[in-house]
């Protein structure tokens, strides 16, 4: 398999990271499906059964990610929890610290 982790930068300065060693076993490939719906940069490498960047991604200096967060949410709820998005949002850590209930999404399994 190619590199175990795929990481790419997005326009806001954040990153999307995917632990692709988990992906061949994923029955849904939910991250790729939601990214395709948004016109994002992920495609499925059929030979390896893992997400990859579109061949034209990055030619303009970015990967055309719309930062919808859909790939992470889809992977967490219908996949194998292999995607992590880190976005620089001023004040977000402070906001999270004020929450009394945990931020958790129910899995569909």
- Percent in helix: 10-25%
- Sequence stretches where pLDDT stays below 50 over 5 or more residues: none
Let me know the number of strands: 5
Sheet with most strands: 3 strands, antiparallel
The global form is globular
Mean pLDDT: 88
**SS content category:** alpha+beta
| Cα-atom radius of gyration | 14 Å
Strand fraction: 15-25%
- The span between the termini is 27 Å
Compute the number of structural domains.
1
Q: What count of helical segments does DSSP give?
A: 3
Listing every helix as H and every strand as E from the N terminus to the C terminus, the arrangement reads: EEHEEHEH
Oligomer: single chain
Major sheet strand order = 1-2-5
Account of the 3D structure:
The chain is an alpha+beta fold and 109 residues long. It has one domain (5-98). The protein has helices at residues 30-38, 70-78, 92-98, and strands at residues 5-9, 15-19, 42-45, 50-53, 83-86. The strands form two sheets. Strands 1-2-5 form a three-stranded antiparallel β-sheet. A two-stranded antiparallel ribbon has the order 3-4. α1 packs antiparallel against α2 (70-78). It is globular and about 45 Å long. The mean pLDDT is 88.
